[in-house]
Amino acid sequence: MMKTEAGVLGGGCFWCTEAVFKKLRGVKKVLPGYSGGTAEEATYEKVSTGRTGHAEVTYVEYNPEQIAYRDLLTVFFASHDPTTVNRQGNDIGPQYRSVIFFTNEEQKKEAEKFIAELNSEKAGPPVVSAVEPFKEFYEAENYHKDYYESHKKEPYCQIIINPKLEKVQKEFAKLLKI
Q1: In 10 A of CB 2, how many CB atoms?
Q2: Is position 13 annotated as part of the catalytic site?
Q3: Can you list the domains of the chain with their CATH numbers?
Q4: pTM of the model as a whole
């Protein structure tokens, strides 16, 4: 039986991160959802108020023999702005924060090490992505799932998601599904 692990990453709007991670080899399941809040339930309507403490996240189930967690982090950091607090482009609020919810101690160490490396290499603003323990994942409503695939012609997909996918295809071709 194939061994899989899970990563939970928040890099702004989950429509973008879902589309990006679905392109990677070794990734078996990608779901948009919510994590990191204090409210006992999370829905788009509640999370979008910015008062539940939840972030829009992507749950990524992957085969570590086909793609390393570090590779997921590499793509994650390259496909959003990890230097802004509670904001990705025009999406503003704590629900759009850059956050890594680690599911085990190895992920925590890898994420902290990766951020430290990025900050030591950068001349610009520091990476402010939070690294927090994973507690619970609330799956997003069905109309959010596979959003990019169902809405490729919509302006948001054309203007925001397409450039991220093009960047991933160009810079990380070796990590893409064949």
Answers
A1: 7
A2: yes
A3: 5-175 (3.30.1060.10)
A4: 0.94
